[in-house]
Amino acid sequence: MTLEEVLAGADSFPTLPEVAERVAHKLKKGDWEVGAVARLIELDPSLSARILRMANSLLLGMATPSRSVREAIMRLGAQVTRDTVMTVSLMSVLPTLPRPLDVRSFWTLGLSSALMSRRVAGDLKLGDSEMAYLAGLVHCMGEAYLAVQHTRGFQRAAKRWQAEGGDLSNQLREEFGCGPREVCAGLLERWRFPEPVVEAVRWYGDPRSAPNHGDLAGVVSIADRLCRDLGMGLAPAGTPEEVWIEQAPAHLVERLAEHGYPDLTFYLLELQDQLVDIETVARQIFAG
Amino acid sequence: MSVDHIAVQHDGGEKCLTVSEWRALGLSERVLCIRERRVRFLRGEAEVPVKQALAWIKQGKE
What we know:
The structure holds 2 protein chains of 2 kinds.
Chain A: H1 3-6, H2 18-28, H3 34-42, H4 45-55, H5 69-93, H6 103-123, H7 129-138, H8 141-149, H9 151-164, H10 168-176, H11 180-190, H12 195-203, H13 214-229, H14 250-258, H15 264-285
Helix pairs in contact in A: 2-5, 3-5, 4-5, 5-7, 6-7, 6-13, 6-15, 7-12, 7-13, 8-9, 8-11, 9-10, 11-12, 12-13
Chain B: E1 5-10, E2 13-17, H1 19-24, H2 27-35, E3 39-43, E4 46-48, H3 50-58
Antiparallel strand pairs in B: 1-2, 1-3, 3-4
């Protein structure tokens, strides 16, 4: 199959709720009028409930829970509100996934990678930590798209991968003729995601080949590998455990060392405790 | 303030490493210790919370 054929069904794939797009657009323009943003979010009751749950979760560290969307977004501020709206909206797009994927594990990896990407981008002083968050959040959407739109082919590839180990991307490429990163980038282009995010998800497997946003792709690569080293994402049973961070781009690892992190294992130690909070948040968001 | 050493459980016991010695371990070994929660930071006899210990290390106070 060609990439175009694989993406031919993209129109029937769930899209982002209109409310999410309008909120993101409004906040991007710097239009931060709390009442107007809250009213927009409240147009979608399910989105409002999930945003409140996430805002009140341990992850965002609020001592006392917010009772309304308006109160929550006042406390979160513009950037975190935008990230939160995008996160819960994307989670709503995919409420279930076919086996062997599992929706809670899938979004735990996405959310963890998003937070880790924002953190690494900040530590590397790359500037646009919001792009990093978004790219981390959506970097595995290609697998989800293939699982939902091409379930039988996806499950054939996953079965081979579970028997043989290695990289799931390679089995998916063999099955479909294109890999999940290309599929993800194609899908995000259709959703009109920012170009740096599209490029980062396309190239995070090989950040040095990215034409314009190699650093952002590298950040996603580091975040993905740190999260996988902590047991997130699918892994074939019975195969030797891979040390994922060995594959992190060396030039960015060196830059992190210059910024006070002598090696990536210190990140792993820090992230380990956050993992419990992130899993709690994913559980809360998918409750009811 | 500083971290005296990193205590790593190993073969049923615990060996104490400086930050440099920790870094000299193989990457696979370090990752395995972290995954299995066999790493503690110590100052004297007291265990230092990970976040605090890493902040000190980042400031070059190991």
